[in-house]
Amino acid sequence: MSREQIPQSYYEIIEACAGPGCPFCRLVEQIGDRFLDACLHGTVTDPDIRFKYRESIGFCNRHAWRLPGSGGGRRLGIAIIYQDFIKQVTRKLEKARYNASGGASLGRLQESLNRKKPTGATQSLVRSLEPQKPCPACVQEKELETLAMTTLVDFLPNDERLREAFQASDGLCLPHLRRALELVRNETAFEILIEDARQKMGKLIEELDEFIRKHDHRFQDESFAAEGDSWQRALARIAGMPAPLPGKSRQKKQL
Ligand SMILES: [Zn+2]
Ligand SMILES: [Zn+2]
Question: 244 C-alpha vs ligand 2 centroid, how far in Å?
Fold first, then answer.
């Protein structure tokens, strides 16, 4: 394959494989951060950008808290676009009415018997306060994650550089392994994915055994080695990596 045909995600995957934990969790995090950068870039000079994010009422919790980044340079942009969302919510609250007569009497009877059921009296208000579109950073992450995952499963069988980088990585978390298995269209790539996951999970099981064993009072004098954080890696393997704190980047762990 010529250099022109190699997608950008190929190089991003190789770079992500050198970091700790699931390379795709890291890749997705970078995609989200780049999108947020682009969103905030120019909010001061072009405040109309805020209209683009009205339907989603900004970003989801995870992405909203990634917005500040590391420095203080994004504070003004955040203040401008989030003031607009707060005004948007306030306008709805100003028009809000408790619609006690709404709904049939049978519906009202059911409401009074079941307190867990949302009331019809505030139903339209609650709906109007919900985002009408998903978080735009989440949408971007999903789209580019699929593109990158397609690159991984397409290049794994024949590209030694990518295969070696992948095999030297900490391996895919379960959610990203599932995504890879959904997109794989080649039996060799499938075998590489399965074998890699089996090997890395097998090693993790052994480390967890050792971690658990050292908690037995008979062995409490033994200090922890590489298995000391195996419980964290088990969480990340099954649930995916945690989002790092804003401004914190991940460092490759030295073992
Ligand atoms: Zn992952
Ligand atoms: Zn989001």
Answer: 14
Q: Ligand 1 centre from 24 Cα, in Å?
A: 5
Q: Where are the domains of the chain?
A: 3-70+133-239
128-175: per-residue pLDDT in tens? Answer: 999 999 999 999 999 999 999 999 999 999 999 999 999 999 999 999
Q: Which ligand is nearest to the CA of 171?
A: 1
Distance of alpha carbon 79 from alpha carbon 48, whole angstroms? 14
CA of 78 to the centre of ligand 2 (A): 15
The CA 178 to ligand 1 mean position distance, Å, reads 10
Enter the pTM of the model.
Answer: 0.85
Ligand 2 centroid, distance to 60 Cα (angstroms) = 4
The residue among 59 and 2 whose pLDDT is bigger is: 59
How many whole angstroms separate alpha carbon 249 and alpha carbon 251?
7
Q: Nearest 10 degrees: CA dihedral of 246, 248, 252, 255?
A: -110
Q: Which ligand sits closest to the CA of 33? A: 2
Contacts of 43 (CB under 8 A, 6+ apart): 49, 50, 76, 77, 80, 81
